[in-house]
Specification:
The chain has 17 helices and 14 strands. It is of the alpha/beta class. It binds pyridoxal-5'-phosphate. The site of pyridoxal-5'-phosphate has 16 residues, from helix 4 and helix 5. Pyridoxal-5'-phosphate (PLP) binds next to helix 4 and helix 5.
Amino acid sequence: MADTESYGFDTLQIHAGARPDPTTGSRQTPIHQTTAYVFRDAEHAAALFNLQEVGYIYSRLTNPTVAVLQERIATLEGGVGGVCCSSGHAAQIMALFPLMSPGCNVVVSTRLYGGTVTQFSQTIKRFGWSAKFVDFDDLSAITEAIDENTRAVFCESIANPGGYITDLDKISKISDKALIPLIVDNTSATPYLCRPIEHGATLVVHSTTKYLTGNGTVTGGCVVDSGKFDWASSNKFPSLSEPEPAYHGLKFFETFGPLAFTFFGIAISLRDLGMTMNPQAAHYTLCGIETLSLRMDRHVDNAEKIAKWLEEDSRVEFVSYAGLKSSPYYERVKHICPRGAGGLFTFGVKGGYEACIKLVDSLEIFSHVANLGDARSLIIHSASTTHRQLTREQQQAAGAAPDTVRVSIGIESVEDLIGDLNQALAKATS
Ligand SMILES: Cc1ncc(COP(=O)(O)O)c(C=O)c1O
């Protein structure tokens, strides 16, 4: 597609990155089910391996189907480049890998998906990295947590599961001042509801497993680069600013400018970590993304109606959804996510833990699964599942206390969803 600037979101979600196949005219992006690509000659092969020419070598690094998805997501996010990978968790490591080295830390929000809390509080320690967890509504705490070894600030735009809205504009000012990038996980919001780069984010990460695919078929992830960060403004990011021994001393930032992070992601991170997205997964996500805006409007509409209905129900203890006037994030969400607060929220059932469990077991349309962003409505008791490895304190901070359930509202008929919740609440509180 030529001039992506002038097209609307609905056009770009279908066309960005894709062209009819030059050989067959195939209109849908073909699934390039191949491991390797034939070089024109030895000189061509050498140029590709030296990064002097851009092209396809081997599908651990690049694949034409995956490349279309990368360009599609980067365009929707307003970034200059994207690197897809095997899952959302892989995307988080791919985002941090070029920035970190042993002894470095990342300052992260306490309000994160439980798996991310575990990845950051436990697993990254094995690389010699660490995370400092901070309440991101406390801006001075973020500033205080940043030290000379901090290499990034990390948060979710709409935090899973609590539906908290992060004040990206204010937080990006703090990271800018410290000359470090702000990484935003935009999984729960999607670029249709929130465009973190417009609020100052340097990198955006996604679990494409969720709303971008939208039908619960494949796992995947993506890192999008805004192309705006000056990787040479300090000596903190030598992987991008200093000579790379594995490429004969090539300096990524000097050579590729705004595309330095993207090229590093492909040429070093995918090559050596191998967290590659397969072309089948890219195909499913490309199909899903074509209807993203339509689905998100419906997710938001249904979520607003259901959250309001639950809030007025005497069997419900509380509802945490930024789309409700009662939410402390009601004003903030209008600025960060002008098209709505998403389809994800939590609520408490009177009767606490036991009632929550009974509710989950009594629902008929909602599926009890560890996923979100499906066309189907989903429910989970986070404290006993996705946030199980966390301490009580961490669960509370993340909005996943034992007396709380999380719903991912689907795009079914809203009356049916309310009817299902109504009958399950009756059983849960009888
Ligand atoms: C907000 C968020 N980020 C990241 C992830 C991890 O994504 P994946 O399961 O694709 O690795 C999840 C998974 O639930 C998530 O909810």
